[in-house]
Amino acid sequence: MTPINKIDNQLKNSFSSNKISIATFMTTDYPDHDTFINISVKLCEMGVDILEFGIPFSDPIAEGRTIQETTFRVLETGTNITNCLESISLIRQMGYTTPIVIMGYYNPILKYGLHSFTLKAKQAGVDGLIVADLPVEESNKLRELCNANNIHLIQMLAPTSTAERIKKTCEIASGFIYCVSITGVTGARKSIGPEIEILVNQIRNYTNIPIMVGFGISNRDHVETIGKFADGAIIGSALLDTIGEYKGEKAISKAYKFIENLIDIPHNRMGAR
């Protein structure tokens, strides 16, 4: 049975309010555990639509310089899947209900155990899971377990995706589709190319679920551009670059000022659902 949880409700509310949905990505426990938790809480209070937390992995093939560096930093301090789930549990215990998605790679999840992982993710308060290197053709087992625990297994599509791959992905997609804006790795960029709008319109031929655009989203202009044809934007590397090496109140302040400029942007859905 397809999950229905906080992701669906939140994105529906944003759509009804005519605003572009904003998801923020942070590497778990970067720059340190306390600062990570405090920034996450601040983002909840600001009204970010979705929190996305990265599970650190030693070979993050989809990531650019920023996320690779932040991942290396937290791996050095021992951050792992268990720490990520514990952080989510803490945020839930503090009373915050913002939808939370975790993003990672298949090997650590497989080693942890698919049954144990999905069950503990549910218990922690996870609403969605993105596995960057898991092809749709090999996702059935994990998707079944996610469905059983009311967790969306979020699917990704890129400008290189064929029409057949788009159709197959849309048939099993739930929560939202993560639309990769470029043929490359994560990282802040100067512009949004026209190919992403073409991809989003292709996806809309097969599904009505929300489409969130990520990879390279760096500023308000990017978000406004995305809002002309998609449902929301995912901001990761640009946020982590803004935080930089700062910790504590300085890091929280920098994150707040950066995201403050990106939320509550009216939607201009010329080609959207």
Any overview of this molecule?
This protein has 273 residues and is α/β, with parallel strands linked by helices. It has a single domain, classed as TIM Barrel (Alpha-Beta Barrel), CATH 3.20.20.70. The protein contains twelve helices and eight strands. It has helices at 6-16, 33-46, 65-76, 81-93, 106-112, 114-124, 140-148, 163-172, 195-204, 220-226, 237-243, 248-260; strands at 21-27, 50-54, 100-104, 128-131, 152-157, 177-180, 211-214, 232-235. Strands 1-2-3-4-5-6-7-8 form an eight-stranded parallel barrel, surrounded by eight helices. Helix 2 (33-46) packs parallel to helix 12. The longest helix is centred in the N-terminal third of the chain and has 14 residues, at 33-46. The protein is globular, with a radius of gyration of 17 Å. Residues 184-189 have low confidence and may be disordered.
